[in-house]
Write a structure and sequence with these properties.
This protein is α+β, with helices and mostly antiparallel strands. Helices cover 22% and strands 28% of the residues. Bound molecules: calcium ion (2 copies).
Length: 260
């Protein structure tokens, strides 16, 4: 009985196995073709001279003659991503979404504020000491910021001589995303600021009575706020603020004044 039925079963099985082998071979060949296509596409993009040139251009922004990028040392970020808790702030600058590009200033420019004397409208801060504002520590942590009283307050750096100022960089607070109000930065040769040059002002309603400002509100980050001071001459730099979106208080972690 079995012997009679055996040949057709065997032939059927062999045909089935043969079909499976051919199917597998077909699938394998298809996968090889697919892998080759991916590899070719990758090589085309990677070795394309235009793509390579564009990549190099992106990586190296050349300094104009006689200029160099400011040698900034930034603290570690304390938060990442787009802040969600800031609502109802008018003229709020959108975060760049990538690191700030280099800032070029004449060669030899350095941070003149490091270790320099700080005075201000609140010489007995609620937290910390004014000298912490130029001590080089820019960390977001508690113990690294100075907390001044509420409403409009200022701090002032004495560079000890008239200097050409090319950039000003400052951190109010960067443990969480915050917006400080009435941020005004002025340069003067007069410690009383009877005459001064304003290099930043985002007091849009003149509540600080220093003039109506047109500059943007911005979110504090570990990159700090970098201002182009365009070579303005002066010995003193004054920083105003009028509270922030979280409280009426004012804070400083560090200020830097780049010049020569
Ligand atoms: Ca500091
Ligand atoms: Ca205001």
């Amino acid at each position: 009985m079995l012997a009679e039925n055996a040949p057709p079963v065997c032939a059927e099985r062999i045909a089935g196995v043969d079909f499976l082998i051919r199917k597998m071979q077909k699938i394998t060949s298809l996968n090889i073709v697919r892998a080759c296509c991916v590899l070719l596409a990758f090589l085309f993009v990677a070795l394309n001279p235009n793509a390579v040139a564009a990549d190099k251009k992106k990586a190296v922004v050349k300094a104009p003659p006689g200029m160099a990028a400011l040698p900034l040392e930034l603290p570690k970020p304390a938060f990442v991503g787009t802040p969600q808790n800031i609502k109802g702030v008018k003229q709020l600058e959108k975060p760049l979404g990538r690191p700030r590009p280099p800032f070029f200033a004449p060669k030899g420019v350095k941070n003149l504020a490091l270790g320099k004397k700080i005075s201000g409208s609140d010489e007995e801060p609620i937290v910390g000491d004014l000298k912490m504002i130029t001590d080089g520590d820019k960390k977001a942590a508690d113990g690294s910021y100075v907390e001044l009283g509420p409403f409009t307050q200022y701090i002032q750096v004495d560079l000890e001589a008239e200097k050409e100022i090319y950039a000003v960089l400052f951190w109010h607070y960067h443990k969480q995303a915050r917006v400080y109000f009435d941020v005004v930065v002025q340069v003067s040769n007069d410690p009383e600021f009877a005459k001064s040059t304003t290099i930043y002002n985002n007091d849009h309603d003149n509540s600080a009575e220093l003039g109506v400002g047109k500059d943007n509100h911005y979110v504090e980050t570990s990159e700090g706020r970098l201002l182009d001071a365009k070579g303005v001459k002066g010995r003193y730099v004054r920083f105003y603020s009028g509270g922030n979106n979280a409280s009426d208080l004012n804070h400083y972690i560090e200020v830097e004044v780049y010049g020569k």
